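We now fix the convention by which a protein and its fold are recorded. Think of the row as the fold of the chain written in a discrete alphabet. Here is one such record, which you should read through line by line.
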Amino acid sequence: MPTDRTAQNHRAEVDELLAEYRSSRERLAETHRALEAVTAEARSSDGAVRVVVGHQGVLREVVLAEDVYRRLRPAELAATVVRLTGQAAASAAERAAEILADVLPPGADPETFLGETPKPGPQPRAAARPAEDDLEDEDFSQTSWLSSGPAERR
């Protein structure tokens, strides 16, 4: 039969474990809030395009200068947004890894917990724009390719 002293010791151990659990839980919540607050932005050199991403590299905002459509062709604009998003995502991932490094055990790799980290790669090539003369030969009729047979789509 347990003595009062044994019961008190068990109660003290349980209280200590609960306090550690609550502390760990609060630290996890703080880390989660800090990760959710991470954003990174990247801008084009001329300032015409700005993107903002979250800690997982998810695009949150794209801001375009009013005259960007006169400065860049659609394919160039798209390539710029993709390139800047990759740059911002890599920066956001670095910040998120720093936050996680503070709470992970020594030797743990924060990138393992963050998943695949986007790396800025080569800039996508802008598609060639058809010459004005080529557009004149195009058939822009209202015919739907859905209603045509497979041989007619080629």
